[in-house]
Description:
4-stranded antiparallel β-sheet; single chain; 57% strand; mainly beta; 7-stranded mixed β-sheet
Amino acid sequence: QVQLVESGxxxxxxxxxxxxxxxxSGSIFSMYSMGWYRQAPGKQREVVAEIISGGLPNYADSVKxxxxxxxxxxxxxxxxxxxxxxxxxTAVYYCKLELIGSADYWGQGTQVTVSR
Length: 116
């Protein structure tokens, strides 16, 4: 069983920065990838950034150059550094861990609100 816990969400003004963290607990018995997704009210959940073990990170076009995903090996997790935040970044951000060939696990989400 795998459990994910996100932290770091909050309310910021446009142009400010915020860093999200996700820590995984439980036993992981296979190769896995991790990523960040977000869902705004009335919209479908979309991928923000993913990082696959042994691979390069991938970003949604809307966040390229502003967001950086990185592994947090001490916590067996993943971080998302968000810079130059925009109102359209407002959403609930979810951490996902995919056990390749097995199952997906999701965190409960953390709210990010960017408002003037």
